[in-house]
Design a protein that fits this description.
The chain is mostly beta strands. It has no helices and seven strands. The radius of gyration is 15 Å and the shape is globular.
Length: 90
């Protein structure tokens, strides 16, 4: 059965260095997908940058809605612009 999820009903998650809304996950009945809206604020001068991380047990797909950034993977460094999508395999 199809379901519609409202952003206003999404659960806020407290994660370091970013603002996260969990929109769809197993908690809402999804069997194999999670959707989060993640905002990574520009750090103020002198702020520590969030360190790298990875997921060895599931792949991750990131779509850049706005802003620019760089991500690092085992295959290299990638500049990201609005409209770009990157797939990080498990």
């Amino acid at each position: 059965m199809a379901r519609v999820f409202k952003q206003a009903e999404a659960k806020r998650i407290g994660l370091p260095g970013r603002n996260v809304l969990k929109i769809v996950s197993g908690e809402q009945g999804a069997g194999g997908v999670t959707l989060r809206l993640v905002e990574v604020p520009v750090p103020a001068p002198g702020d520590l940058m969030r360190g790298p991380h990875y997921h060895s047990n599931f792949e991750e797909c990131i779509f850049v809605l706005s802003g620019v950034g760089t991500t690092f993977a085992d295959s290299g460094e990638y500049a990201l612009l609005p409209g770009d999508t990157i797939l990080m395999p498990a």
